[in-house]
């Protein structure tokens, strides 16, 4: 068995190191080897829209207008959110804004 993690895109284990990156031989996806080492430690790695790793207490900005389901509220692009909290599940980020408490997906956030 290989100690290298499976491909994060296709989840197959046919992965090999290439310089500072890991490459999946099946789908061709490449990612940094250091990111794989952090994921191997068992900690959930949450990344923003630009690929920056998020942590509890970070400040982020919305990169897209988000409509809140079941409400007439729209969270506007450029809204700064301070002191986020990372949680498990589909929506990785828990935050408090003027409009209320929300759970957001990290792909709609950019680290400040």
Structure characterization notes:
By secondary structure, the protein is mainly beta. The chain has two domains: 1-43, N-terminal domain of TfIIb, CATH 2.20.25.10; 60-111, Roll (SH3 type barrels), CATH 2.30.30. It is 7% helix and 31% strand. The protein is built from one helix and eleven strands; from the N terminus they run E-E-E-H-E-E-E-E-E-E-E-E. It has one helix at residues 33-40; strands at residues 15-18, 21-24, 30-32, 60-62, 66-67, 74-75, 80-81, 85-86, 93-97, 100-104, 109-111. The strands form four sheets. It has a three-stranded antiparallel beta sheet with strand order 1-2-3. Strands 7-4-11 form a three-stranded antiparallel beta sheet, with no helix packed on it. Strand 2 and strand 3 form a beta hairpin. The longest helix is centred in the first third of the chain and has 8 residues, at 33-40. The model has no long low-confidence stretch (mean pLDDT 84).
Keywords:
mainly beta, 112 residues, 11 strands, 2 domains, SH3 type barrels, 3-stranded antiparallel β-sheet, elongated, N-terminal domain of TfIIb
Q: How would you briefly describe this protein structure?
A:
It is built from one helix and eleven strands; from the N terminus they run βββαββββββββ. It has one helix at 33-40; strands at residues 15-18, 21-24, 30-32, 60-62, 66-67, 74-75, 80-81, 85-86, 93-97, 100-104, 109-111.
CATH class of the largest domain: Mainly Beta
The N- to C-terminal Cα distance equals 40 Å
Number of strands: 11
The helix tally amounts to 1
Total separate domains: 2
Mean pLDDT: 84
Spell the H/E element sequence: EEEHEEEEEEEE
What is the CA-atom radius of gyration, in angstroms?
Answer: 17 Å
By CATH, the superfamily of the largest domain comes out as SH3 Domains
Structural class: mainly beta
Spatial strand arrangement across the major sheet:
1-2-3
Q: Which of globular, elongated, flat, extended, rod-shaped describes the shape?
A: elongated
pLDDT < 50 stretches: none
């Amino acid at each position: 068995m290989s100690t290298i993690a499976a491909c994060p895109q296709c989840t197959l284990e046919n992965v090999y190191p290439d310089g500072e990156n890991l490459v999946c031989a099946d789908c061709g996806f490449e990612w940094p080897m250091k990111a794989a080492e952090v994921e191997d430690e068992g900690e959930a790695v949450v990344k923003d829209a630009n690929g920056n790793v998020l942590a509890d207490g970070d400040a982020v900005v919305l990169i897209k207008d988000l409509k809140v389901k079941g409400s007439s509220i729209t969270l506007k692009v450029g809204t700064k959110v301070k002191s986020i909290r990372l949680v498990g599940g589909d929506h990785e980020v828990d935050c408090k804004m003027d409009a209320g408490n929300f759970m957001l997906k990290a792909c709609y956030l950019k680290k400040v």
